[in-house]
Each structure stands twice: as C-alpha cells, then as structure tokens.
Amino acid sequence: QAAPVITVDGPSGAGKGTISHMLAATLGWHLLDSGALYRVTGQACLIEGVSWDDHAAVTDIARHLDVTFTAAESGEILVAYKGRDVSAAIRTEEGGRGASKVAAIPEVRQALLARQRDFCRAPGLVADGRDMGTVVFPDAPVKFFLTASAEERAERRYKQLISKGESVSLARLLDDIRERDARDSSRKVAPLVPAEDAIVIDSSGQGIEQVFDLVMQKVTEKG
Ligand code: C5P
C-alpha cells in the first residue's frame, strides 16, 4: 500500500459516512466512499437502459464506469456519471436498492477493485464501505466496524430522507434495511462481516460526537 489506510465498514445507517468524513477532514486524508461507486453503477444502468439483473451488461458498465468525484465549496462531494451530476439520484432509496443489487455481482466487485485501491494516496486514506478491511485493504493498520440496531438505523435514515423532502414510511424503511442487511451479509462474495482485526463499535444510543471521540482515541492509540 502506497499510504496508510483506515477502514470504516458496517451496515447502512450506522454512521459510517459521517464518521469517515470527520476522520478524513481531521487527519487531512483522502476519502473513499465505496458505496458511491456501487450506487453510480446502479444509476448508470438506469441511464443506459440496462437491467440490474443483466450481469454481463452491468459488469461491462462497471468496467468502463466514467465517474468523477468533486468537492463542492460546502464540503459536500459531488458525484457525476459521464459529466452528469447524479449526487442526489444515487442517494434515494431506489439508488440504494440498485447499488445493493449490482454489488451482489462478483464480476462487478472485481471490476471496481483496482479503482478503489487507486484512492490510496499520500498522506493517507479513510475508506468507507462494507469490505474495506476484509477485501479491498486487508493490510490496513486500523480497521473499524461500525454498527447500530436496525431500528435505530431506520430512524436515522427516516429523519435524513424527511429532511430532504422525500416522503417515506418508517416501517417500510425498517423492512428495506433488514432486507438489505440480509442480502449484504449473506452474499457469497465479500459479505458484510467485520475483519478479524477490526475494532467493533455499536453506535446505538450514542451521539455522533461520542462515537467520533472513541474512533479518534483508537486511531491515536494505534498510530
Ligand atoms: O454505503 P452505501 O449505503 O452507499 O452502499 C450502498 C450499497 O452498496 C450497500 O447496500 C451495499 O450493497 C453496496 N456496497 C458494497 N460494498 C461496499 C460499499 C457498498 O457492497 N464496499
């Protein structure tokens, strides 16, 4: 590995995204949002008229994925496919479903592997995902696995979507989260499991600042 990597894995809604952002900003390191790559792949399929179930065609899209990440002044990261801004589209519930579907295709994961490793540049990388510590950066010196109860993750997601003006039902979100958890943790390739050497943190009932303090404490200890 060209530079040190801190991996942050876990299910959706556990606070990985926020913690990874805070960590990268505090350390001044690069950030890899690997979920965004799967989300863009799913979105590209919609744009190109390819079914998420057509494995050969989805793999072809992943291999040639024309995606760019640019930091907006707000600090938000804008995601574009073929130069077209898809930042909002990939964050919808449909975007999440597409990502989870295409992420279950082994050839798609393989196609995105080198691209993810390219993010590892000096001075360091914070890698956010599901298999960062197990598959993509197995040699990372510091690995986290963030989790929270399904109910709490559904509630957090609910608040997020409502604040964006999406109309959703909490019960439906909880069902979706359980279904996605089951799919992500039972798939044959890169299932969602903590790396053997990962520090597991359950964020249920904890504020983000509290979780971040704990993460920073561990990083300082290890570094
Ligand atoms: O993290 P995020 O919610 O954006 O990820 C969307 C979906 O992409 C996940 O539900 C998962 O199926 C897939 N994913 C993955 N491996 C990663 C990151 C995301 O399979 N490293």
From TrEMBL:
Cell compartment(s), UniProt: Cytoplasm
Matches recorded under HAMAP family: Cytidyl_kinase_type1
Keyword Ligase set for record: no
Name of the molecule in the record: Cytidylate kinase
Enzyme class, UniProt record, top EC level: transferase
Gene Ontology cellular-component annotations: cytosol
Catalytic activity: CMP + ATP = CDP + ADP; dCMP + ATP = dCDP + ADP
Record-linked InterPro entries: Cytidylate_kin, Cytidylate_kinase_dom, P-loop_NTPase
PANTHER family, per the entry: CYTIDYLATE KINASE, CYTIDYLATE KINASE/PANTOATE-BETA-ALANINE LIGASE
Positions of the Cytidylate kinase domain: 6-220
Residues that bind ATP: 10-18
EC number(s) given by UniProt: 2.7.4.25
Gene behind this protein: cmk
GO BP terms in the entry: nucleobase-containing small molecule interconversion; pyrimidine nucleotide metabolic process
Family: Belongs to the cytidylate kinase family. Type 1 subfamily.
Major subcellular site: cytoplasm
GO molecular function, one term: ATP binding
Pfam families: Cytidylate_kin
Alphabetic keyword roster: ATP-binding, Cytoplasm, Kinase, Nucleotide-binding, Transferase
